[in-house]
Design brief:
Elements: H1 16-28, H2 42-47, H3 65-72, E1 76-93, E2 99-107, E3 110-117, E4 131-139, E5 146-148, E6 162-165, E7 168-170
Length: about 170
């Protein structure tokens, strides 16, 4: 009778230290299970990212981290989401597709122009001092940058953007 080689497991054996290191990395990165129950306390809701919050559920503080990074990197067509205060409303751009225009204050005296297509989305009721939540494509320029695509994608090919004012989304 011939001797058979020992049977191998189909699962890789991972040294214990590697498994522990991987677990520590996951815990340190703040990852969580998608099916884990989520707290609905005000503190937990405020700590979530803007994408995870329901419309109107953001707090009253600007959220400019992603915008500052995009400006520093002179980003082109980078999708961003955050909150900022309106510094000034501008006249609509009526050349081609109509755009509602206003400036967001991003600190240090800098501004970013928002060009919100009002042929595709409702006008957002912004005025100086309004806190505006946003999701859109950012394009850096010498004046700070432009945030556009703050509306749905009419062709349905990609997730669109939005503006949020006073608890209501305009997409």
């Amino acid at each position: 009778m011939s001797k058979l080689p020992p049977r191998r497991s189909t699962f890789a054996v991972v040294p214990r230290w590697r498994a522990q290191a991987a677990l520590l990395l996951v815990l340190a990165s703040g990852c969580e299970r998608a099916d884990a129950p989520r707290s609905t306390s005000p503190a937990a809701t405020a700590a979530r990212t803007p994408a995870e919050r329901a419309p109107g559920a953001f707090d009253d503080a600007p959220d400019l981290a992603a915008l500052h990074q995009a400006i520093a990197e002179r980003a082109q067509e980078r999708w961003l989401q955050g909150r900022a205060t309106v510094r000034r409303s501008l006249p609509d751009d009526r050349d081609g597709s109509q755009h509602q225009r206003f400036l967001l204050d991003v600190g240090d005296g800098r501004t970013v122009l928002v060009a919100h297509n009002i042929d595709l989305a409702p006008r957002a009721p912004v005025r100086t001092g309004s806190l505006v939540g946003f999701r859109g494509a950012f394009v850096y320029n010498a004046k700070g940058g432009v945030l556009h695509w703050t509306h749905h994608d009419p062709a349905g090919r990609r997730a669109g953007g939005w503006l949020e004012v006073g608890g209501r989304r305009y997409e």
